[in-house]
Design goal:
By secondary structure, the protein is mainly α. The chain contains four helices and no strands.
């Protein structure tokens, strides 16, 4: 991997901001959701920057790409949980829109990293064949 730190990646930074927003949001959930939706949303949110960081530390483009795919999956899981929270009346339209927008932005950034790594792997394979 490059000498750049995972902390320099905009996707990781935005994912960390999303974690903060999710933690702030679920503080207002009913107590009976503590081990349900509250926990699920926290786990999905924290999984995003965790997987970006872990993948970056693997020193392999293929491994990093796989962890980015896991991060993307967690972001999509979180989007679903946000919609469930709205349907259950735990959050309003504005909070739902804000959280979904942030999650979608993080997903787009992760997709960009995946595309970049895929292109690098493709270029590396072409050079190896020649």
């Amino acid at each position: 991997m490059s000498k750049q730190s995972y902390r320099d990646l905009v996707a990781w930074q935005q994912a960390m901001d999303l974690v903060d927003d999710v933690y702030a949001c679920v503080r207002g959930f009913p107590g009976e959701e503590l081990f349900g939706l509250t926990m699920q949303m926290r786990r999905a949110a924290t999984s995003i920057p965790n997987n970006i960081a872990e993948g970056h530390g693997r020193f392999s483009f293929r491994d990093f790409r796989q962890f980015l795919r896991k991060a993307r999956g967690s972001a999509l899981e979180l989007e679903t949980e946000i919609m469930i929270a709205k349907r259950q009346g735990y959050i309003g339209n504005e909070t739902e829109s804000l959280l979904l927008e942030k999650a979608e932005r993080v997903t787009r950034l992760i997709n960009g990293l995946i595309r970049n790594l895929t292109q690098r792997l493709t270029n590396r394979e072409r050079r190896t064949k020649n």
